[in-house]
Amino acid sequence: xxxxxxxxxxxxxxxxxxxxxxxxxxxxxxxxxxxxxxxxxxxxxxxxxxxxxxxxxxxxxxxxxxxxxxxxxxxxxxxxxxxxxxxxxxxxxxxxxxxxxxxxxxxxxxxxxxxxxxxxxxxxxxxxxxxxxxxx
Length: 136
Description:
Elements: H1 2-11, H2 48-64, H3 70-86, H4 92-111, H5 117-129, H6 131-134
Helix pairs in contact: 2-3, 2-5, 4-5
């Protein structure tokens, strides 16, 4: 019941940013979020600001993952992630599916640390690259 209420809260109305750092301080297993589904086999139309933030994160990882610490990478990704919520104008089913995509991304960003740096960056790159499978 609590989980259902949580999903209703995040999927209704406009986007609201959660503190991306809060989940990183808990040592619990990553939750299983609902999968992202296509729009009857087609990609969802995302607002340009969301797509731009995803591209910024992809480029940032591509250009900086070898030379910066996990903390520096995490900070930049969290900052860009917050912009997605700040600039969100999506509504309806597309908005709901965007949240299905973003919640696991938030968890992957929050989990990044020096101990899992290499594997975490690979996982983030792969996940960010999957955005184009669902959104245009």
